Amino acid sequence: MQCAVGHAICSSCHGSLPSKDRCHACSAGGGSNRCNALEKILESFRVPCPNAAFGCAAATSYHEAENHRGSCPHAPCFCPEPGCEAFAGDHGWPSTEMTMYGGGERLTLPVPEGTTTTRVLHHGGGGEGRPLFLVRFTTAPQFGTVVPVVCVDPHAVPGERKFRCHLVSGFPAMAWHQVSDFQVRSTNLSGGMP
Amino acid sequence: GSITVSIAKIMRDTRGNEI
User: Fold this and answer.
1) Which end of chain A is more exposed for a tag (fewer CB within 10 A), N or C?
2) CA A105 to each of CA A102, A120, A146: distance values in angstroms, whole numbers, following the listed order
3) Do the chains contact at A166 and B1, CB–CB below 8 Å?
4) Is B11 on the interface with A (CB under 8 A)?
5) Would the CB atoms of A169 and B9 count as touching at under 8 Å?
């Protein structure tokens, strides 16, 4: 944007000015108008995707950069294992294949005793946009086993919930079972396992 | 012991309410 004299200011900075009717540089009145010449120059600039280190070759204009980041197929996920920087690292975690997109089928998983184990629920053949879930069994003294379930999503936003989990834990020998129903947190695991 | 897990996608209406 620019004032009648020609002093330029970007629209986000202009929006934070205490007085939008007067130029920030010369106090000229009349407000600011779009500056087509500067817009053309800025549109000609191309900025590399921040995920270039992960293989993204996209270069976008400034105003397209945020949209691209939100859908970049090269956005990374992280590994909940301390000290490991690669989600795809081979930890020997057992995995179970889900045949239906988004789940919706019942999977019976054995509960390990006395060890922390992470199990991967995935779709055969992978595929862009197919959800990946981690089920972690953690021994908690006095409580038994804690079982968080998370959806691994490189584009997750804080507080986001896209899936619901119905979890039944049972010990037939004790004629006992417990039902939990909760929304599954989506995360890119950048802060470790929730 | 064992657990049975069933995961389903949350469906929402146009206002974002769970349905």
Assistant:
1) C
2) 9, 15, 22
3) no
4) no
5) no
Reported ipTM: 0.83
Task: List the structure tokens of A7.
Answer: 């002093």
d(CA A132, CA A186): 10
* CA-based max dimension of chain A: 84
With CA atoms as reference, the chain A residue closest to B6 would be A106
DSSP states of A35-53 as a string? -HHHHHHHHH--EE-TTGG
Distances, alpha carbon A134 to alpha carbons A106, A114, A178, B11, in Å: 15, 19, 20, 21
Per-residue pLDDT of chain A (194 residues; tens, 9 = 90+): 899 888 999 888 888 888 888 888 898 888 888 888 888 888 888 889 988 888 889 999 888 888 888 888 888 777 666 655 444 456 677 778 887 766 678 888 888 877 888 888 877 655 556 788 889 888 888 777 888 899 988 888 878 888 999 999 877 777 888 899 999 999 888 777 77
Element containing residue A14 per DSSP (H, E): helix A11-15
Name A48's bridge partners.
A59
| Min distance A35 CA to chain B CA atoms (Å) | 37
State phi, psi for A66 to the nearest 5 degrees: -65, -40
